[in-house]
Amino acid sequence: MRRQLDAPEAKPIIQLGISLIAVMSVVHVILATQFPQKILLLGLTWLLTTALIIYFCSSWLKKITKPIKIVTDQLRAARMGEVKYEMVLNNEGWFSGLYNEIFHYVRQTTSMRAEIERDREQLSQAITDIAHQLRTPIAVTENLLELVDETNLPKNKTILLEQNERLADLVAQLILLARVDTHTLGKAKQPIKLSNLLQKSLNYLLPTIADGKISLDYQVDSEIDISVNLALMQEALVNVLKNAFEHADQDTTVEIIARETPIAVILEVNNSGPTIAEEDFPHLFERFYRGENSAKNNLGVGLAITKGIMQASDGRIMLKNLPDGVQYQLEWFK
Fold it and tell me: What is the pTM of this model?
């Protein structure tokens, strides 16, 4: 209580109480000189009035200090990692408005702190994964270099070039994955015809399509527009198309179908081949997860990267089994 009385905010109330008691005392002294026979009654009146003034000022002081204490406790709890809100304190007063604003601020900063901590952990994990994935091709390259001589130079040169290409692709994929994990993908978007973006993405996969003797059923309206980060979305589309073609049986057809609704632009890529095992579905978008039908050199990050790019583009990706294959469905919401 002494601490409350010493506070600067309490001084005006205390000064008001003292002033009222002083004025009331002067009035009682004057009345006592005028009516000496009433001095006992005036004394009792003075005591009662003084008690009422003290009671009024102390109640006023408590009414002010109580919400301040509540707000202080709320901030102290937030500092300790707790976010609490008592509905009974929500009324029409000014302090209630302050209480609500502080609660929203605390909840927002707590959420931001959790996101920062999660991003830090993901970045740490991404760095660990990058180091782990790079170790193998670097070790293979180092061993080959030690074995190179004039007799095996042509053969080892070809292997070294393949390892270098794989290493470069691995670095690019891991860096992009780290950007997905830490939410640092580019947000700049520009409109483009979906058909044009698909055709550019398909150009990268022509050898895969030719090797598998795969036919293409292309049903994409040339007038469908999407607004995306071109480089990132092409990366996502290449990942999806590559998965679809690599897991398609030879001499089959892959369907690429696009349609537009009032809500979204929807792209479906359907292949004919092995379906996804039920136990693999919960893990399809996990980093470095390789299902039972994964390709030999598959790193296991393509779908994780694609999901991150789609989310950054206000969209989503879904996979489901067809009777004789798999459907990859991408949606860009308007």
Answer: 0.57
